[in-house]
Amino acid sequence: MPRIAPLQPPYPADIQAQFDQVMRGAPPLMLFRVMAGHARAWTKFRGGSLLDRGPLSLRQREIVIDRTCALNACEYEWGVHVRIFGTDAGLTAQQIDATVNAPADAACWSPPEQALIAAVDALHQRSTLSEDEFTRLRLHHDEDQVLEIILLCGFYRTVSYVANALQLPLEADAARFNAG
Predict the structure, then answer these.
(1) How many whole angstroms separate alpha carbon 165 and alpha carbon 177?
(2) Taken in order 145, 133, 95, 48, is the CA torsion positive or negative?
(3) 105-109, 136-140, 154-158, 176-180: least confident range
(4) Which residues, in sequence order, are CB contacts of 108 under 8 Å at separation 6+?
(5) Residue 99: closest CA among 76, 119, 71, 72
């Protein structure tokens, strides 16, 4: 059980509608159930969550999210994203493992993806990008995409803090860091 109790069904109608919108009919994640029990936190979370499609491809977006969660040792959110989006994002088993266990320049990534992962790593390690890292990122991404990358890194670092600090139990059908 997490350190803050999640909402239990039946959910208030407005919360159920919000869950339905985000989850598209699937049961709500533990993270959402915990956050939704606290109106201000839930509103802020949904407002800053970048759950919409945005200017990145699904693949780019998932590489950023998966790497950010892995760097923050957040198996909860990493596992949810790998399960729900990994296949649709075209990530191979080797690439999924590489988000956790390989350097940015791993051979399984294309040069644009290596630049993307290097930027995620730099933001995690130093909270900034060097001139070289920024230049490499801009070779493959426009300004809107660069801003989205930075925002996704920050948001999913926050999600990692929440999931880890509240000790959210792993979702039953989510991927695991050491699944093989």
Answers:
(1) 18
(2) negative
(3) 176-180
(4) 92, 94, 95, 98, 102
(5) 71
Q: What is the pLDDT of residues 39-84, one digit of tens each?
A: 999 999 998 877 777 999 999 999 999 999 999 999 999 999 999 9
CB contact burial 60-91 (16+ within 10 A = b; e otherwise): bbbbbbbbbbbbbebbbbbbbbbebbbeebeb
**pLDDT per residue over 5-19, tens digit each?**
999 999 999 999 999
Q: Report yes or no: 148 and 57 within 8 Å, Cβ to Cβ.
A: no
Q: What is the CA radius of gyration of the chain?
A: 16
Q: Which candidate, 90, 117, 88, places its Cα nearest to that of 102?
A: 117
d(CA 150, CA 59): 16
Q: Give the CA-trace dihedral at 6, 8, 11, 15, to 10 degrees.
A: 10
